[in-house]
Amino acid sequence: MFTVEGPTQRVVVVGAGLAGLSAAMRLAGAGRDVVILEREQRPGGRAGRIEADGFSFDTGPTVLTMPDLIDDAFAALGEDYRDWLDLIPLDPAYRAFYPDGSTLDVFADPERMAAEIESQIGPAEAAGYRRFVDYVATMYRLEIRDFIDRNLDSPLDLMSPNLLRLIAKGGLGRLQPRVNSFLKDPRTQRLFSFQAMYAGLSPYKALALYSVISYMDSVAGVYLPKGGMHALPQAMADAAVKHGVTIHYGVTVDSVETVGDRATAVTTIDGTRFPADAVVLNPDLPIAYRDLLGLDGSRLERLDYSPSCWLMLAGSSASYSKIAHHNIHFGHAWRRSFDEVLSGNLMSDPSFLVTNPSHSDPSLVPAGKQSYYVLFITPNTRGNVSWPNARFRDNALRIMEERGYVGFADAIEFEDITTPADWQARGMEAGAPFSAAHSLFQTGPFRSSNHWGANVVFTGSGTQPGVGVPMVLVSGRLAAERITGVDPAYRSAAWR
């Protein structure tokens, strides 16, 4: 495994996103002197926060799974995350709405979920679901240590007995056919395969090994930090500072100074110089290569990027008794919708997500009000849609009205909209907040490396292991281990 050689005492981390914070916590726990430079006035990166008119909104991910990974990051500092963060289990984790008017609640307890499926669909489908849970749990066990939570320098690093077991389980086949081999009803088939979009792929194109996302998402449980998702990076930053990490907010990095292939310092736009023995870069990889290191980032720019999304944050006077915290509204079309968006066009019959954070945490809104996070998958900025698109908002609100959100548009008291063009302006290549797609040759050791030169390390969704809150937390650990090396005792205890 590549490890930074020479002195590693002084580490500068560029970006206080979840991955940068995860790396910083582990580096501080290993005795390094860590400085974080963050251009915003608060931590979080994509997991940011907007506060207006008494409403508090998360601007990025809203689904939190795998609390063991949070525990792991805080444990690196000798801390218990429960002293810093209050996680609310969401029950149900999701509520799914179908075009025939039926609904399904998703419960983390497999037996409760099986009972829900049996009551709504039938005993045969419930039995198929139990087999599916056994399958995704096995896939998770096969993948986590050897292929996810591990630095991979070469395809040869994949060679292990678990690779053969993974192949034997059909992990290199396609996700949707594998899901369909267990589940026969279109409702459950959709419910346990839509997660492929997190990986930037149609479930008909994604590898079956990505069924582990269903495990994390639907079996291991979904949580909300009290105070919203932004409470997670804030807690991580506060714990890091307690243990000696220095964080400079409102600081924009201009460049990484290098001598040959070794970084020597990080310089901000006001000319301040931060000497470094090693540098961790949390920005999107093309930005890190092109703008910070002054390297040719054309290979990264040519990667296949995930679809983007249109996001509305709405403070509202309207409430809807039939919804849960996370609500997935499926359209009639399924495979066609993926084909449309991945070919650069809008979904003609979209499925979409509505999250109602105030459903679980009323402290996020003024008394008597509600907050909504409305997300429609769209093409990224390389598609056939121009952004900003004046008609998209009206169409989205019309579709919401048709799907049960009566009077939603008229009840909006505050709104903030993010389009693919906005994601791109914030430093995300192709306007893709889900980063490079997880196709076969953009996965594992084929994904962009998390190191360059002698002492520069990358972290975040664009590098290994990939996209999503669990993966970027792991990414921070992998970045730290490029600098500190792997502690076998700690590693063996990390996944207990």
Show the helix and strand layout.
Layout: E1 10-14, H1 18-29, E2 33-38, E3 49-52, E4 55-58, H2 67-75, E5 87-89, E6 94-97, E7 103-106, H3 110-120, H4 123-148, H5 161-168, H6 175-182, H7 186-191, H8 211-219, E8 223-225, H9 231-242, E9 246-249, E10 253-259, E11 262-268, E12 273-275, E13 278-281, H10 285-292, H11 298-301, E14 308-316, E15 326-329, H12 335-342, E16 352-355, E17 370-378, H13 390-402, H14 408-411, E18 412-418, H15 420-425, E19 451-452, E20 456-458, H16 469-484, H17 488-494
Parallel strand pairs: 1-2, 1-13, 2-9, 6-15, 13-20
Antiparallel strand pairs: 3-4, 5-8, 6-7, 10-11, 11-12, 14-17, 14-18, 15-16, 16-17, 19-20
Helix pairs in contact: 1-9, 1-16, 3-4, 4-5, 4-8
Explained architecture:
The protein is globular, with a radius of gyration of 22 Å. It contains 17 helices and 20 strands. 34% of the residues lie in helices and 19% in strands. The protein is an alpha/beta fold and 496 residues long. The longest helix has 26 residues, at 123-148. The strands form five sheets. The protein has a seven-stranded mixed β-sheet with strand order 7-6-15-16-17-14-18. A six-stranded mixed β-sheet has the order 9-2-1-13-20-19, with helices on one face. Residues 492-496 have low confidence and may be disordered. A hairpin with a 2-residue loop joins strand 3 and strand 4 (55-58).
